[in-house]
Design goal:
binds aspartic acid; 415 residues; 19 helices; single chain; mainly alpha
Length: 415
């Protein structure tokens, strides 16, 4: 049995962890309330298994992003190329997100997730409100005052800016920086080794995380909201397979099935952690080792995408807008719908890649068209279930963008 398990691929092992975790979680939920259930299983065993893995992988995010991006930017040695990749990536991210919102609004309009809702059956949770930040501020705050503080706080955009500057500086110095170039290459190998080590326990971690979630979900809360949850998942499915599938087919030479299969471990981790940021090391590892995509591209597109590109989140926001409008009997006018496309696309830039961030950002979208903020409270109780799916789409969008850009830049060594 042990030998058999050892022979399985990491993809199969992680999927097994996910599946078993979900089953065990649902069974745990059925158990009568007791110290054994809560303190031993949920807060003990499952939390421990999940947290050891989660913390292990999050521990690597900041050093990985910094080191690999310094490496990538310095080896590119071409500021024009860097600028071109930057522009294309931003264009790709913004347009796929806008498309995601449009898909969501169309579904929200036709499927009417908020109609016929039994308000009595819903547990209303007090929503957290996002204060919103002016766009100029978002832009200038990308430059860190203090790079060490940026790293300590895990401020991804600030780390990206600093790492690119260090990398470009090194490449301008040329020979003079050869020691640093070698050092960063070495550090890069080291950090990828550490990712591999942490990934050894990924199946157990995924098991613990999903078992914990599934044993605490309020299943009763799902039933009245099933139409909302279903509509979001239909939107996520369209984005995942139709939009990304078409992009892969038209702009890359990747076989779509192989691409999705190879990327499954990253998707499983996104699904179980509901955090794009935590998935960065795994995504980069797979894109490099399994798909042969140059780190030069992925070191930039993946951390950036995990921070600003949230297509799954945008889908949830678009559908939530219609849901809330329908619940409160508000008819959305065309200008309102266009405002949602704009605010949800821009809002996704400001959404952090951590669990629940998208729902906090939703308050900004809701406020922009004057819908009642309490509406968000209606969907908060089941948000984690939706978050798992949308995070999976969020990180797949980043990977597809990476594949498209790498294909254009000739940055793929076919494996
Ligand atoms: N959890 C999502 C992510 O990390 C963000 C969200 O809440 O929508 O990508």
């Amino acid at each position: 049995m042990r030998e058999k398990l050892r022979g399985l691929s990491i993809t199969t092992k992680v999927l097994l962890g996910l599946l078993l975790g979900a089953i065990v979680g649902v069974i745990t939920y059925q158990l009568p309330e007791s110290g054994f259930k809560q303190a031993f299983l949920i807060d003990g065993v499952y939390t421990f298994m999940g947290q050891v893995f989660l913390r292990g992988i999050i521990m690597l995010v900041v050093p990985l992003v910094f080191i690999s991006l310094v490496n990538g930017a310095s080896s590119m040695g071409d500021i024009q190329k860097l600028g071109r990749i930057g522009m294309r990536t931003m264009l790709f991210y913004l347009s796929t997100t806008a498309l995601a919102v449009i898909i969501a609004l169309t579904l929200g309009y036709f499927l009417k997730p908020g109609q016929g809702l039994d308000l009595q059956a819903i547990e209303i949770v007090e929503p957290t409100i996002n204060e919103g930040m002016p766009l100029v501020q978002i832009l200038y705050e990308m430059i860190p005052r203090n790079p060490i503080q940026a790293m300590a706080e895990g401020n991804m955009l600030q780390i990206i800016i600093f790492a690119i500057m260090v990398g470009v500086g090194m490449s301008l110095l040329g020979e003079k920086a050869s020691f640093l170039t070698k050092l960063f290459e070495s550090l890069n190998d080291l950090i990828m080794k550490l990712v591999e080590i942490v990934m050894l326990i990924a199946p157990i971690g995924v098991f613990g995380l999903i078992a914990g979630t599934m044993s605490t979900v309020g299943y009763k809360a799902i039933i009245p909201l099933i139409k909302y949850i279903g509509t979001v998942y239909i939107g996520l499915g369209i984005q995942m397979f139709l939009v990304y599938g078409t992009l892969l087919k038209v702009f890359t030479k990747f076989d779509r099935k192989t691409f999705y299969r190879k990327f499954t471990p990253a998707m499983s981790i996104a699904f179980s952690t509901a955090s794009s940021a935590a998935t960065v090391p795994v995504s980069m590892d797979i894109l490099e080792k399994e798909m042969g995509i140059d780190k030069e591209v992925s070191a930039f597109t993946i951390p950036l995408g995990a921070t600003i590109n949230m297509d799954g989140t945008a889908i949830m926001q678009g559908i939530a807008v219609f849901f809330i409008a329908q619940v409160y009997g508000v008819t959305l006018t065309l200008p309102m719908v266009l405002t949602v496309v704009l605010t949800a696309t821009l809002g996704s830039i400001g959404t952090a890649g951590v669990p629940g961030a998208g729902t906090i950002m939703l308050s900004m979208v809701i406020q922009s068209i004057g819908l009642p903020l309490e509406g968000i409270g209606l969907i908060m109780g089941i948000d984690r279930l939706v978050d798992m799916g949308r995070t999976t789409v969020n990180i797949t969008g980043d990977a597809v963008c990476t594949a498209v850009i790498a294909e254009r830049e000739g940055g793929i060594n076919r494996i």
